[in-house]
Amino acid sequence: MISSKWTPYLFLLPAIVGLGIFSIYPAFQAFFSSLYSFSFVNQTNQFVGLQNYISEFTDPVFWNSVKVTLLFNVVINPLQIVLAFGLAILLNKRVKGIGFFRSIHFIPISVSLPIASVLFMIILNPDEGLVNSVLTSLGFHAQPFLHSSHQALWVIVGIATWKGVGYWAVFLLAGLQEVPSALYEAAALDGANKWTEFIKITFPLMKRSLTFVAVADTVANFLLFAPMYIMTDGGPNNSTDVLMYETIKNAYVNSNMGSADALIVMLIIIILIIIGVESKLLKPKH
Amino acid sequence: MENKKVMGKLVSYLLNIVLVFIVVLPLLFSITSSFRPHEDIFKYISPITWKTFIPTDITFSAYKDIFTESGFGRIFFNTFFVGIVTVALGLLVNSMAAFAFSVFSFRGKKIVFFIVLLTFMVPFEVIAVPLYKVVSSLGFIDSYSALIIPVVANGLVIFLYKQFFDDLPLSIFESARMDGASWWRIYYGIVLPLSKPVTITAGLLIFVGQWESFLWPLLATHSDQYRVIQVAMSTFSQEHATIWNQLFAASNLTIVVPAILLLFLQKYFVNGIANTGVKE
User: Fold this and answer.
1) Which domain does B32 fall in, by range?
2) pLDDT for position B280
C-alpha cells in the first residue's frame, strides 16, 4: 500500500460527494423514519423508538417472509453462481461460432425483469399458456405453475435464473479473460487433467471475480420483488411473500413507511451477515 | 488425445445449442406474436403445430403503430442519451474511487469502503421519497439531470473496479512514480488502458441499470419530452392492455436494442490483459 496525504481523497471526492448526497443521506432519512410512526390522530410523525421493529417480531406474516426469503436465497444464489460460472467457462472456449453463442446467451440481459415476468406469465398460464399446451401434447399433465403454493416460488427461481445467469456470466467471463493462458499450457505439459486445472488454476485466480458476483447476486436476489409484484402478489398462500415484497407493500400500498423502513433495516442486516460469510469463503490466500 | 479434443468440442457445442433453445424459446413467442394480426395472437397456441412458432400472415403494423402513434422514437433517444452519459460519467467517477481504495492506504479507508458497500444494499425503492426531496431542492426535477446525476456514483461499480485493481502489482505504480509520473497520469495513462474488460462490464452494468430503471424516472420526470423506455412501456401496457401485438412489439424493441449493443461488445471479451504480462 502506498501512503499519500491528499491524493486518495482527491480521487475519492466525486464518488463520495455523489454517494453522500444521493444515497447515504436519503438512506439515513429512511433509517430514522423506521423509528417514527405516522399518527392519524395528530396527522404527524411520532417518535416510537423500536415499536416498528417490535410489531414486526410479533407478526406471523413477518416470520413467514423471513422463511420464504431465506428459502428462496439458499436455492437461487448458489444455483445462479454455479450456472454463471459454468456458462462463463463454456463461453470462454475458443471454438468456431463462439461469438454467435455468446450473443445469444447474453440476450436475457436485455430483457428487463418486468418484461420477463409478463412474458412468462403469459407462457405459463395454466389454461391457455404455451408450456401447458406443449406438456399436454407430449402426454403430461397440465401444471398450475404460479397458481400453486408448491410451485410458484420455484417458478420465480427459474425465471430469475433465466434472466440472471447470462448477466453474471459476463463478469466471470471478463475474469476468465485475465487468467494467463501460459498457466494452462504449463499445466497441460505437466499432464494435469481438466479438473486439476480448474481447482489449481481457474478457481484460485477467479476468487476476486467470484466474490464480486456472489456479493452482487446475493444483494440483487434479496432485494428482488418485481416478479412477485407482477405475477403472484406474494401468493398463493403467502408462498412467495419475500421480505422485499412485504417492504414494498408496506411502503406503497399500505403507506406505512415506518414499518417498511424497519423491514429494510432488518433485511440489510441479513444481507450483511450472508455476504460476510461469502467473502470469508472466497478470500484469496496470499 | 485427439479423440478427447473432438469429444470436448462436441460436448461444448451440444451444451451451447441446448442453451440457445432455453434462451430463445420464451422470446420466440413474443417475437412471432408481434408480427401477427391482433386477432390471431392466441389462435395457434393449442394444439401445438409449426404455426405456434411461425407467423403465417406477417404484418409490421404493430411496429409501425408504436412509432407513429406512441412516439417511441423520442423515447428511445432519451433512454440512450441518459444511458450513455451516465456510463461515461460513471466509469470515470467510480474507477477513480476504486483506484484510491486499491492503491493507497489512508485514514478511514475501512469505514468509507464499508459505507460504499452499504449503498448498494439499500434498495432504491426505499430511498426514493427522501431522494426526491433532495433532487427537488437542487432544482433537477423534470430534466435530464434528474435522471443522470443521482446515479453516477455507484457503489457496486466501485466494488467491481476495486476487485480488478486489487490484482494489479504495486510495483508498476512505484516504478512509474520513480519516473516522475503524477498519480493522475498513472491512473489515466497506465491503469485505465489495462482495464478494458472490467470497463466493458462496468459500462454494461451502468447501462443496463439505466435501461431498466422505472421508478425513479417515473417520479423524477413528468413531461413527455423526458420520457424513458420503461416508463413508456408501463403506460403503454396500461393504455393498450388488450392490443397484444403492439404490446409484444414494444417489449421486443426494448429487448432488441440493448441486445444489438451486446452483439458488438462481446467481441471485446477476447482481448484481456492476461497475455500482456502485467498481471502476476
Assistant:
1) 2-59
2) 41
